[in-house]
User: What shape does this take?
Amino acid sequence: MSDTKRKLAAIVFTDIVGFTKLSSKNEPAALALLEKQRDLLKPLVEKSNGEWLKEIGDGLLLSFETTRDAVDCAIEIQHLTKEIESLDLRIGIHQGEVVFQGSDVVGDDVNIASRIEPFAANGGIAISGRVNSSLERDPDFETKYLGTPDLKGVDQEVKVYCITSHGLPETNRSDVTAKLDSKGFQWNLKNSIGIAASTIGLLLVVNVMFLRIGFADESEVPSIAILPLENKGAEEDDFYAYGISTDLISDVASAGLIRVASLKEIEELEDLNFKEKAKRLLVRYVAQGSIWKRDDIFQLSMELYDTKNEKVLWSERWQKDWAEIPQVRDLLSDNILKILRVDHDSSNPVHVSNPEAYEYYLKAKHKYEKLKNVDDLEIVRGLLNKAIEIDDDLIVAKNLIGNTYSSTGDGDKAMSYYTAALKKAEKLGDDKGLAGSFHNIADYYSTKEELDTAKLYLEKALDLYVALNDKDGMGNVYISFAHHYWQKEDLETAVEYDKKSLKLYEELGDIKGVAVNLVGIGIYYSSIKKDPEEAVSYYERAQNIFEENGYKKLIPYSLQNLASAQITLGKFESAINNYDKLVLIMEELGYGQERIRGKLRNKAYAMSIMGDYEGASKIYENNLEFYEELDDKEGIFHSLRSLGISNYLNQNHKRTLEYFERANELSKEIEFPGYELTTELYINLCYKYFDQKIDLKRIQDILKETEDAGYTTNFHLYELLGDKVYLESAHDKIQEMTTPMNDTLRQQFLDYPLPRQIMKAHGKVIS
Assistant: This one.
């Protein structure tokens, strides 16, 4: 990797204002503008000791050795382009340690430069706090502080300024208010008691401030999002904020009848402010706070906000040393639960970890969640082993290190840690830790397919979660029980546990969990019970929830199952519409084209049944082009086969023969088992049509090796061979296919071209 190097650099991002609009109106003019930008600016960048890394659309990515070189060059660029029509630029500058890979540059600091560029005025320059610090002592420079926004994909705090000297336009704060408001409500420091500079000692509560005390309504299941604590200290202290946040979420979620948004759900909505997050997560309450490590003292603050009544219910602030942070966390969860009127059992003893061990555990937990490679995994295990070495009673560390081995397939190693955690939980009387260990051990035996043993441990875990009234734990065990019975092929019992999980999610008001369970139950009715109508009712309920609440990533999960069930029911138009919706959403979500092509093929199948052979053929032709570009022989074969059948149904025998002869040649290169009959059948049907000799023996030999085929193949066998057995089989297949359909849809199906042809032939030939 000699081309890869890491170094400190100033990164410049530029963007042409209004370029997208210009491109849509006058593409040649837009291209000419890019040429002009390149001709004007590239020599200037090189003259300023800069590096022209790459052009990104209409934007430029530039690198400089020093901040001053970057700033001076950016100013000169803005002065130079000022008089150029349509070449209005915004520029963002940040300094940091980046990785150069050949002619490219990557790293978080590159991302920061791109994220602050939109805060510049047209013709202006936005800079980060680091760049601003380098200019503060230069009397020639004047800057204006804009704020500390939440930058997408950026974990660290970044202050944003704009340069107001050197004839540059000042950013109008009203133009970027929306970008700056993403952090939601903030502490009003003017109304809080400051921290005395002379504070000495280990721990001191600075201020307990109740802005507005209130309680949750008793008529509803409390719902809350506990947002990750904002780290206001050094970047290397992020693990404190992350670890305490996840532990707090876990503490509150396991307290009883309360719905707590998961950290994953929250992180998916990082671009939204806290009110918008609450709306999307369907929670009434939001807890938000910050943590700041200053030497050996931690400043921690938290407030609880009621989005329904738009008021702060509770707010509190501490200054503590690390040893007392676990007690603060417990106090936080107790206060939240009290205000939300959640009954919880606080009698179960909780091990107070050694502060140093707990710190190692939080570092490991943060590293594990942000895992990048195998080396990171070894670091995680090292940190956890260090935590256990310091505090052998730290059950969560033992279970977590077990999970790291389970994730890499080393079940026996994982089991040794799960067992150690179990023994320790029993000794300490930690029922929550014991339940978690039971569940982990059950998963171990499930993986080894020792299902009876797995069931015993699941039962033990469930009993404890029920005793603790831990709804979150109960729900997870129900899901494991459902998986257990699926493994045992006791599908009736499996779906009963799915329904128990569904009921629990309904009690909690967790509509996302409800919807996911609805799809699972729908699959059971569709594939096992062969009741597509019942399945559709579950899929549609789930689909409505996903769409109404913006769960775009989950929409394909319900939509593809819904469309498939609709085809079974003969609702072909609805299925086609849903496949269209599905493809659009999959494209928006960045699904691979191979997966999308499969859905288009399903759509084409529905179109073929309805007699839209030309429409279906267009889809198959596009699929063929796609697979030919990839040289995907399997995809090519299936596309040729589909095109052949579609053209035969459309009575285009010449094209049918062409497609199947190509498919036949391809099948000689790569074996495609199970498709010999289809290929030979349609080739010989075309031979018969063109009065060429047919190979009956070849067809008969294949038939001896072929399992029962569908109504289309059976009817065409009847056409080729004249054997009434195949016509009878095609008729029976249609009767079977139309059984789930209502009378209207059944009649509609029988009126489609091929079914109508089969029924007509059957009526004539077989009395």
About this structure: Residues 349 and 429 are 7 Å apart (CA to CA). DSSP finds 32 helices and 15 strands in the chain. Residues 27-47 form the longest helix (21 residues). Confidence is low (pLDDT under 50) at residues 181-214.
